[in-house]
Amino acid sequence: MKELETVQIEPKNRGASRKASTSGKSKTKWGRLWADVARDKYLYVLALPGLIFFIIFKYVPITNLVIAFQEYSPYFGVLGSPWVGFEHFIRFFSNNDFWMLLRNTLAISFLSLIFFFPAPIILALMLNEVRSSLYKRTIQSLVYIPHFLSWVLIYGLTYLMFSQSEGLVNKWFMSMNWETVDILSNPNYFWAMLTAQSIWKEVGWGTIIFLAAIAGVDPQLYEAAVMDGAGRFRRMWHVTLPAMRNVIMILLILRLGTILDTGFEQIYLMMNAPVTQVAEVFDTYVYRVGIRQGEFSYSTAIGLFKSIVGVIMVVTANRLARRYGQESLY
Amino acid sequence: MHEKGWKTRLFSLVNNGLLLVVGLATIFPIYYTVILSFTDPVEYYQRSLILWPRVWTLDAYKHLLSNGLFVSSISVSVFLATIGTLLSLLVTGGMAYALSRKRLRFRKAMMIMVLLTFLFTPGLVPLYLVVRNLGLIDSVWSLILPSLTSAWYVLLMKGFFDSIPVSLEEAAMIDGSNDIGVFWRIILPLSLPALVAFGLFFAVGYWNTYFNALMFINDQKMWPLQVLLQNMLVDPTTMGSGNGGGFAFQVNRQVPTETLKMAAVVIATVPIMLVYPFLQKHFAKGAMVGSVKE
Q1: Which UniProt keywords apply (chain B) (predicted)?
Q2: In this structure, how many other beta carbons lie within 10 angstroms of the beta carbon of residue B275?
Q3: Are A117 and A199 in contact (CB under 8 A)?
Q4: A253: how many CB neighbours lie within 10 A of its CB?
């Protein structure tokens, strides 16, 4: 049935396009180029919506970055707004907010690096030691779930567990006649709470890539290790972990490249008045000052600063990762 | 490999036990939310600690689903997850297919154009200005068009199309089909399992739309579910008060706001849990595809 349908599609186009490329009349470079483009015109049609998308939503915004050097007003638009040079950058770097944002961003990122990064590795090692495949799959099915839940839902679940008035933890404290604890709007707990949330959401999902690395280990290596009298921990240490080493190193380096990206939704949702000083990061600040308060130029300058630092770090990290990947091949 | 010492047994016991704790810690908050949403109001106020309700009730759900704003937010989210997903598949698929044909002129240039967007993201405000200049603020399209696809999805799908042999395409060409015909009648049906997998991921992404709505949607009637949910969940100490402010959910005295909140969380979670088995079937592949190719 399918063949029937294909025959019906535009028979007039048959063959003509194919031949044009192989024995095109014009042998010149441009002639051949034109013939090739004409031959593949429908491929360009297929690619067109995507191309338009990338131009409008990925490249036009880049041209809008010039407003970082202007005093943008919607009335004059990007072309007509007056130029102010680096004024917005100077204002931002001399602002105390800058140091607060930098501190919060780095603190949250480093906590995530120390606690969140190793979590999936440990979980993958633990899962790998489970003998019953049914049990293993059941646990896997459970821990993958949160990856697909939105941050709003996770905020909801967090609220339900930890809020002072309605949270389960505090209800339990109350039923034991203990004092309730304010967990969600306490600056001392905020960073820990974020890290815990991230681990809860992504630890299971993160194991996938490590489990794949473990699956690639030659079983003979384990047998040889057993012969040599290695127990479980020794096998883990000398066989499984080295097998994961490349993946771990590459992920770690790439993670370092995105150290300024703390994620907007999680922090914005968890933020409340008492914790603002430890919660505000670049992304939330840009949103609040830019979109909410309408200081387009100033917040664009902040965004631009973050993007440039981001590019430098990602490029460096990629280069490191590639070098590491190459060396480890030998 | 079969040492049966007590050490091995103890290790397994501890390991399995710890994993059980991890699994329970994952599922418990979800479980607790579900049972609270079904708890009778009287019981909710009288008992402090509820792990299993004595009386089950659907009051919270009935109340929610009779609320116009809640229903409209669900329809916005359903629209995103269906129409948005279809459009995303078409745009991503078309572009990925074109880029997977090695004979295509300017293929390299287009690839670079896609790849560069990995590297440099200009930030929120420049994108906001584009969406505003297109007149999309408060339009449901502001939640679809700017997130139609991404370099990541194009690359993943291109990797998939790369593996389809060119001979298939050539056979169809001889039968008189053009590239669009080949794509539509041969390539897409062949890649159905992959399309389903991509579609599920797109759909989950659209269903979870939050940040774009925060930026682009001020009109409550156009809110997707996640934004409404956030506004319902916000407690008085929270200053992340969502869009526009002035939002007040009509509170019925008979149904505590807490069980209402939980019912809303459950309703927002149900579609994810429904597609989860399918997601799980596909995502191991999806997560790995990109790392294998090129």
Answers
A1: Cell membrane, Membrane, Transmembrane, Transmembrane helix, Transport
A2: 17
A3: no
A4: 19
Which residues are within 8 A (CB) of A103 and not within 5 positions of it... i.e. 6 or more apart? none
Identify whether A85 is part of a domain: no
- Whole-number Å distance between alpha carbons of B224 and B161: 33
- Cβ contacts of A209 on chain B, cutoff 8 Å: 287-288, 291
Amino acid code (one letter) for A301: A
Mutate to test the interface with B, among A160, A209, A265, A309 (most CBs of B within 10 A): A160
- The pLDDT tens digits of the residues spanning B199-236 come to 998 999 999 999 999 999 999 899 999 999 998 887 43
Mean pLDDT, 10 residues at a time, chain A of 330 residues:
40 44 62 88 94 96 93 86 92 92 94 94 94 92 93 93 86 87 91 95 92 88 87 86 86 83 91 91 93 92 92 85 60
Same domain, A53 and A134: no
Instruction: Supply φ then ψ for residue B240, to 5 degrees.
Output: -70, 75
What is the rounded distance in angstroms from the CA atom of residue B81 to the CA atom of residue B207?
A: 6
Alpha helices in A23-68 (DSSP H): 29-39, 41-54, 60-64
User: Which chain B residues are within 8 Å of A158, Cβ to Cβ?
Assistant: 29
Query: Measured between beta carbons, which residues in chain A are less than 8 angstroms from residue B91?
Result: 49-50, 53
Which of the listed CATH numbers 3.20.20.70, 1.10.10.10, 1.10.3720.10, 2.170.130.10 matches domain B68-249? 1.10.3720.10
Pick from B95, B117, B175: which is nearest to A3 by CB? B175
